[in-house]
Amino acid sequence: MSKKPELNVTLGGIELQNPVVTASGTFGYAREFEGLVDLNRLGAIIVKGLSLQPARGNPPPRIVETPCGMLNAIGLENVGIEAFVRDKLPFLRTLSPPIFANIYGTTVGDYAELAARLDALEGIAGVEVNISCPNVKAGGLAFGADPDSVFQVVEAVREKTTKHLIVKLSPNVTDVTVIARSAEAAGADSLSLINTITGMAVDIESRRPKIANITGGLSGPAIKPVALRMVWQVVQATKIPVIGIGGIMTAEDALEFLIAGAAAVQIGTANFVKPHATTDIIDGIEIFLKNRNIARVSDIIGTLETAPSIF
Ligand SMILES: Cc1cc2nc3c(=O)[nH]c(=O)nc-3n(C[C@H](O)[C@H](O)[C@H](O)COP(=O)(O)O)c2cc1C
Fold first, then answer.
1. 245 touches ligand 1 (CB under 6 Å)
2. 133 C-alpha vs ligand 1 centroid, how far in Å?
3. What's the predicted TM-score (pTM) here?
4. Least C-beta-crowded within 10 Å: which of 45, 163, 237, 258?
5. Hey, whose CA ends up nearest to atom 26 of ligand 1?
């Protein structure tokens, strides 16, 4: 019988007990999943995107199921930083996994202020800067699609925080490696990708878009090959850890990202399909490693073999 494999990974100085992390916006503020998931087994928890003021998001309908995925245009509804600190953080502080706050703003100053306020808080391991939301009019992707504004936002946040700084990248760009390098140069500790891919669905009877916002962000299994390709490209192009996100439903999906070079993975849409997807994925990774006598999950990270095979 082989030994229990070691699942821990490091993310630029932060130790995670395993590489499985919740994706922002798909796991609430974690308490919503209490009783469904053993929260203390998670590698890390990333909470719903926070803004300075509470936000109502976009009008409904704002979610629609599509083949192998879903479109959403929530528009970053959230309780705002003040209520987060008062009502959500006390519970999060009782959990053992590192907690990351995902932030978004409509100006560089918003991002900097959010980072400064979070920097002062105990119980927050780091921030994930969302410069990639396709569903808000100002901010979000408006920053994430241009290397100069990415640099400005990340530099401003870096000045205000000593905590771990993850920059979350959008797939809705021509060359994701240009954006990734800009975030790295501005001081990001790690990169996460991908956010959703802009998409659309039409009701042919009413001839109306199925989402009130007209377009939404596509997530779920449909985006996995795109996400995997982009993660692999960014791993080649940068020196900082990359967290893979996009359509990860099973341990096998997660392993594909790890082999392609991701230091960790985030689980999003899968949480809606199966609330305990995260812990199932942790178990599945462990079984995969054990069955192959691989001692550590870190032994498979970045082991993708791309040289042509000889027949
Ligand atoms: C309903 C919903 C809400 C989301 N909200 C956020 C958010 O607040 N901030 C953010 O950075 N990403 C948000 N995302 C994007 C996810 O974190 C993730 O990047 C994306 O869904 C791709 O992963 P998946 O295919 O595993 O869902 C949201 C996604 C969904 C489906």
1. yes
2. 9
3. 0.97
4. 237
5. 268
